[in-house]
Amino acid sequence: MVFDVFHVDLRAGELYKTGRKIKLQGQPFEALAMLLERPGEVVTREEFRKRLWPEDTFVDFEHSLNTAIKKLRQALGEDKSKPRFVETLPKRGYRFIGEVEQREKQRARRESAPRTSWVGCVAKLSAMGDDSVALVAADEEAAAERDKLDAAKDDVGLSLLIASQKLLLLPAGTPVRILEVQETASRCQVRILEGEHYGKAALVPLKSLVDLP
Asked: How far is residue 36 CA from its own chain's centroid?
C-alpha cells in the first residue's frame, strides 16, 4: 500500500519512506495496518485492544495504545496537533486521513495519462513488487544487455553490469526528470535528481514511475 512518500509492506511488516526502511516496532506497525485497512473510518480503541492485546495479556491498555500511536506518528514525521495521516477522535479511537492507493491503482492512473505531456516533469521511481530499490539502465546498450540477461536468468551477468554501472541501483522514491518518452518501447529517458547517481541519465520503464501529473 502507498500513501504520500510511504510504502507499506503488510506481509513483511515493513514501512518505507522514499525507498528507505523506517524502523517501526510491532504494535505501532499493527496499529498502522489496522488504520490502512479502513482508511477514512474510525478504528475504535476497543478494536485496537482486541487485536493488539488479547484477552490473556495484562497491560495498561490506555497507556500502551497511546504509546503505540505516538511511535507511529514519530515514524511518519507528523505532529499530533496538525495530523496529516492519523487523526485522534478523543475517547473513541483513531482514523487514517491520508490518501491510500494500491500500487495497481497508481499504475492504472499513470498509464491513462497523456504521455507526451510528461516531458520535463518530475516523477519518482517505484521498485517492482515489494523491493526497496529500482534497477535502471544507463543507456540503450545496457537496456538491451539487461533484457538478454533477464531472459537467460543470468544473475552473475546482471551483477557485472551493476558493478560496471551500466545498470544503476536507485532507492524507490528517487526523483527523476523526464527527458524523452519512448512510446514504442514503453520507457523514457530521465535525469536522476538525487543520490549517488545525481545528474546521470538513465532509461526507465514507464511502469516504474509514480507521482506523475
From this structure: 14
